[in-house]
Design goal:
Elements: H1 5-22, H2 26-37, E1 43-47, E2 51-55, E3 60-68, E4 74-82, E5 87-92, E6 100-103, E7 107-117, E8 124-134, E9 140-150, E10 161-164, E11 169-172, E12 178-186, E13 192-199, E14 205-210, E15 219-222, E16 227-235, E17 243-252, E18 257-266, E19 272-275, E20 282-286, E21 291-299, E22 305-313, E23 319-323, E24 326-330, E25 335-343, E26 351-360, E27 365-375, H3 378-404
Parallel strand pairs: 2-9, 11-18, 20-27
Antiparallel strand pairs: 1-3, 3-7, 4-6, 4-8, 5-7, 8-9, 10-12, 12-16, 13-15, 13-17, 14-16, 17-18, 19-21, 21-25, 22-24, 22-26, 23-25, 26-27
Length: about 400
């Protein structure tokens, strides 16, 4: 007789219960066996590289692995216990210095060992010791890093070609373009093609071009015992800070090589902004009466502006004064408030007039155009009314007298 579905289900349920009763934790046992393979407690400190070679003056960054190989979680204190004189060394993450780390059982953490030499540290071997210690002090582990500083390689002596320039240092604002005039002399006894290359600050643009021409090239053919002039065009990065920046120029061929260092001194950008708080550049005034306008002067550049003066261009017989009369110094981003006192001429006709104000700094100027509306004085209105009253009164008196006759 063929078994039905109702008969099979109870049988499967009984089999499942029997399996669970006999084997309650088949997978948990495997996990427990794994934990049994770990020691109760174990830590290790392991730098990725135990020895590195760097040139003079270069910093050192090495990945550092801190591991907890035991069965319990650990708090591990970290420090550089030995560092050579004239070196600074510490342990860090991508953003901050680290003095300790918490690690769960059978886990690890990657950090960075950082070392910086002071100025003047010479060639030699320098040994650093990094130590990790559990918070209770019962376990310690250490790693050692040897930094070999090699002597700075001297530049290859120029032979067969010579680079000269009359003005190796140029100075100007950040938003300017600089052009060096360079003379390249071929001292070989044959015509030679020289390759040109330049090394400048990051995000700067350096190009080679013929003198007085607007095309670029990367090589230069010079006849034997002759010289050629070229221009080195430098465009600074617009966000570069004021300072001195070196530009290394290299001329090379299979038989000759020469280098020259040019320098660009950036003074920052020079720009002034002017305006009023309301944005309006107009005001009303009366004949012979002083009217005031308040405006601001802002240093919108990256360099300090000194000795800022104010000039005005006004109609004849008008008077314009400023308070303060000048601004001695204005730092980048600073704003100063200035009062302009404008007095129209006594004989000025009613109407609109233009008054220009020029703000002049040492390296930048800014002009502002004002519209001044001249109105007649209210006193003249009352005088006119008085004259009309007198005339009317006179006429009335005249009519009365004529009527009596």
């Amino acid at each position: 007789m063929k078994p039905t579905r109702q008969a099979i289900v109870p049988v499967l349920m009984m089999a499942l219960l029997f399996w669970v009763f006999l084997f309650p934790k088949p997978f948990a046992n495997a996990e427990e066996d794994k934990d049994k393979d770990l020691p109760p407690r174990a830590i290790s400190i392991a730098p990725e590289y135990t020895g590195v070679v760097v040139p003079e003056g270069e910093d050192v960054s090495i990945d550092l692995t801190v591991r907890n190989g035991g069965r319990q979680d650990e708090d591990i204190d970290l420090k550089v216990t030995a560092a050579p004189k004239d070196w600074k060394a510490w342990i860090k993450t991508y953003s901050f210095q680290v003095t300790g780390v918490h690690l769960k059982s059978d886990s690890s953490k990657s950090l960075t060992f950082k070392a910086e030499p002071d100025e003047g540290v010479g060639p030699g071997d320098y040994v650093f010791v990094i130590e990790g210690r559990t918070r209770d002090g019962k376990l310690t582990s250490s790693g050692e890093v040897t930094v070999t500083v090699k002597p700075e390689q001297k530049e290859k002596k120029s032979e067969g070609v010579k680079i000269t320039t009359s003005y190796p240092v140029l100075r100007g604002p950040t938003d300017a373009e600089f052009e060096f005039s360079v003379e390249v002399e071929n001292e070989l006894d044959q015509d030679t093609v020289f390759n040109l290359s330049a090394e400048g600050p990051k995000n700067w643009e350096v190009n080679f071009k013929p003198a007085y021409e607007d095309k670029y090239f990367s090589s230069l053919r010079i006849k034997a015992d002759r010289s050629e002039s070229m221009a080195v065009e430098v465009k600074p990065y617009i966000l570069a800070e004021p300072g001195t920046y070196p530009i290394k120029v290299k001329v090379s061929s299979e038989k000759a090589e020469a280098q020259a260092e040019l320098k660009v001194v950036l003074t920052g950008t020079y720009r002034l902004e002017t305006g009023t708080g309301s944005g309006l550049l107009s005001l009303n005034a009366y004949q012979g009466k002083e009217a005031n306008l308040s405006f601001y002067v802002k240093n919108a550049g990256s360099a300090t502006q000194n000795n800022i003066k104010f000039l005005s261009f006004k109609p004849e017989n008008w008077k314009v004064e400023f308070k303060p009369e000048k601004i001695d110094t204005l730092a980048p981003g600073d704003v100063k408030q200035v009062e302009a006192m404008i007095t129209p001429a006594e004989q000025a006709l009613v109407g609109d007039y233009s008054v220009s104000i020029s703000v002049e700094g040492e390296k930048a100027n800014k002009d502002m155009e004002l519209r001044v509306t001249v109105r007649s004085s209210t006193a003249w209105g009352w005088i006119g009314i008085g004259v009309i009253v007198v005339v009317i009164a006179g006429l009335v008196t005249l009519f009365v007298r004529m009527g009596r006759r």
